[in-house]
Amino acid sequence: MTNFSNDDFWKPVVTTRQIIQGEDIIVCVSLDMEGDWEALGNEDFSDDDLDVLSVEEMLQLDPSLASLPEMECGQMAVRDGKDAPWQVEDADE
After folding, report:
1. Which of 12, 48, 69, 90 lies 20 to 30 A from 76 at CA?
2. H-type helices in the chain, by residue range?
3. Is there a domain that residue 86 lies in?
């Protein structure tokens, strides 16, 4: 993943129980202004569904995250489906 160096593999990523359990796919990955990662899907979720995994664990769940384009803080990458290309945009759009 171009956004992650070997030192980043233990960085936390906020995601959902649905993604972890394979009930949803990741369609949005954001990098907030503090450099924190979030990986979310299409399914509705509540705060109770949120969980934290490492970058390494997220790559094991979804190896296609390795194709994320370079992003800066305050941006997100979105895609239409698991095999669709990532599109980077500002997170406030």
Report:
1. 48
2. 17-20, 55-61
3. no
